[in-house]
Design brief:
Layout lengths: L1 E7 L3 H6 L3 H21 L3 E6 L2 E7 L9 H19 L1
Antiparallel strand pairs: 1-3, 2-3
Helix pairs in contact: 2-3
Length: 88
């Protein structure tokens, strides 16, 4: 059993088109950090990453007495939303 998390930044392309040079590079790097850091903090694995989105998997070992993959996935989603609001 596993929990999947898909997070995507809305209006990412429109924001990127309004920037150039170092500002654009910095924004894209910060957006990637926001999307991946919460997954890493909560023990998930990145299955696919794009500049504006991330697909992550949260799982437990088969012999885990109390699976917590769903809880970790939900907490990562909440953390991602909070970090994205700060980025905006």
């Amino acid at each position: 059993m596993a929990t999947f998390l898909y997070a995507r930044l809305h209006n990412f392309n429109a924001v990127c088109q309004s920037m150039a040079g170092e500002e654009l590079t910095e924004f894209v790097n910060e957006a990637r950090r926001v999307l991946t850091e919460s997954v890493a903090k909560l023990g998930g694995e990145i299955a696919q990453r794009r500049p504006d989105s991330v697909l992550a998997i949260f799982s437990n070992a088969p012999d885990c007495a109390k699976p917590d993959h769903a809880q970790r996935g939900l907490h990562a989603a909440i953390l991602s939303v909070s970090e994205t609001v700060h980025l905006a």
